[in-house]
Amino acid sequence: MGATILISISAVVSAVLVGFVARRILGTAVGWPRSIVVGLLVFFLGVPSAQWTLRQTGLTDTAAPVPANDVWLWIGLIALSLAWVFALGVAALVASEAIFPTRPLPNPIDLVRAALRQRKRTRRYLEILTIASRHGVGWLFHGGRSRVEEQLSTSEERANAIVATINDAGVSFVKLGQVLSTRRDLIPEPYLSALSSLQTNATTLAWDTVRGVIEADLGAAIDEVYAQVDPVPLAAASVAQVHRAVLRDGTPVVVKVQRPAARAQVEADADIIGRLAHRAEMRTRVGRDLRIESVARGFTSTLVEELDYRIEARNTRMILSTLDLIDRAEPSRRGIVTAPRVFEAASGQRVLTMDLVDGAALSDSVDRLASFSAEDRDRLAQTLMSTVIEQILVYGVFHADLHPGNVLLKDDGTLGLIDFGAVGIIERSRRQHMTAFLLAALSENDVAATDALLLIVDPPDGLDMDAFRHDVGVVLTTEHLRTDGQGSIFTRMVDVIRQHRIALPGELASAFRSFATLEGCLRVLVDDFDMVGRALPLMPTLLRRTLSLKRMATDLQAQAVISLARLERMPQRLDALLSGVEKGSIGVTLRSDDGNDVSGILGRVTAEVASTLVSIAAVVIAVVLVIAGGGPVLGGSVTLFAVLGAVIGLFGFLGLLRIVRRTFTRPR
């Protein structure tokens, strides 16, 4: 019994020791389960291997005791035999790691959670595929053809089928379609028109549910925040619904309340949207042309942010700030274009309380506008145009979803902007390029417009510059001569960008879209409003605000300070350079495109090559020594050269294993 326990303990210790030593020799982590298994094999094969080695050397004789002179030889041969068994065990570990690399064991709780999420995702995925197949657009996901799909013979039929599928798929997909409907730089007709018809209405939530969301998000009873809340919503959409309310101080407001299940559904659908977009881009030409995977990634991250109404509150405050700056510059137009205030004490992540804007959307105000005088309508259009253009070009913060539904004609005859879930932000340098492009476009200078446009976009390699400049010039010329008031110079310019497969940054795509949708709003106010002609006289004023003497002086001061700081460092750097020359210690640091230091690659490659050559040489020398034999006889048939060969070969073999292991574990 004691012997059995002793053997078991020795086996476990040996297994752990083998695993530890293997990890140290290989220089990388090796899975402990397989290390222990190999260690046990080494332990149980070690004794038979040592006995076999002694028999081959003629030193073993069970009937006679070990001569005193051969004790150390016996011990050395047994140790050498065990070392080779260990080396072969390490080789088995290397082979297993190469075929089945070690992965960390997952937490059981995480496994259960992942399985539940996978089950939920799979069920939702199958539901979406069923909806798609029912409407005949399964080709977007699996690339095949079916009887139903064959009936969708035209682009219009396929576009309408896609819209029907999106409407049935739920909130996330409806929002995705709405975003795609504004990306004229990505989506061609007739898909663009079909997506713009997506439904935005939804069933209303029960008042008890809405009340629970409000109280949970604000952390207070609803009566402590509002004097009154209308249980009947003003409007209900797929993500939220809006209620009239009155604050305790008597201020009339609207309360935007997010649906309780909106975030969970969006987060569950985000992974599915990415997978479907990847499959559609990989398997269909339409998906590749639309670059739908990149669009989907940007959409899902943006949509999750839009579910946090604290971000919309921040956006609203930025828009209010730009309107205040614009009104200060021209007090005569103060109050003509406004935005609602946000009440932070009555707002949170899922609840947003803002001023009540009494009025109707421009799209629903045609009859009322007909009662306005031509001068009043023209003043509204001119003020709205100058406000939006100044927001984009001077301040770089603008409404990124400015369609006639988000511009209200208020009861007092002024305009109110609403819904700031999507706000575009453009940095100053790009605003300057945008201003240059608009100046060139408004003056029909196709060469300057093309050059300015190339500073804004990301042109691909192999772009046909002459063809691109020609198409830009055609758009400018035709738009300056158009009299039917249909379309927009900005939408046609985006069409040219898309046709030449030029990538347009998202924020600039939002700016172009805002220009185009602004033109639509202006033509609701004034049927024949000439945005191109009316915007040109504004440009000198906007340029003065963008390139003011005060700002230019500040820029020069900043550049001077930076240049002075660099000049102050020059003597130190020059002294360090000269000292390095004198000492012969100047070095060169090489960096890759991603900024990583690659100057040590040559040294590492040289070291690996040298290690490989040394290991190969050791193995070759070992083979020669073992085969050739010779040297003094140590006992039995064991010669000195054979033992040296076995020892040298062992180290060479382990060196080769280490190199092989590094090859398999090198980052790719």
TrEMBL record:
Keyword tRNA processing included in the entry's annotation: no
ABC1 atypical kinase-like domain boundaries: 198-446
TM region positions: 6-23, 35-52, 72-95, 613-634, 640-660
InterPro entries, per database record: ABC1_dom, Kinase-like_dom_sf, UbiB_kinase
Keyword set includes Cytoplasm: no
SUPFAM superfamilies with a match to the protein in the record: Protein kinase-like (PK-like)
Annotated keywords: Membrane, Transmembrane, Transmembrane helix
PANTHER family (UniProt xref): CHAPERONE-ACTIVITY OF BC1 COMPLEX CABC1 -RELATED (PTHR10566), PROTEIN ACTIVITY OF BC1 COMPLEX KINASE 7, CHLOROPLASTIC (PTHR10566:SF113)
Family: Belongs to the protein kinase superfamily. ADCK protein kinase family.
Designated name of the protein: AarF/UbiB family protein
Record organism: Microbacterium galbum
Phylogenetic placement of the source organism: Bacteria, Bacillati, Actinomycetota, Actinomycetes, Micrococcales
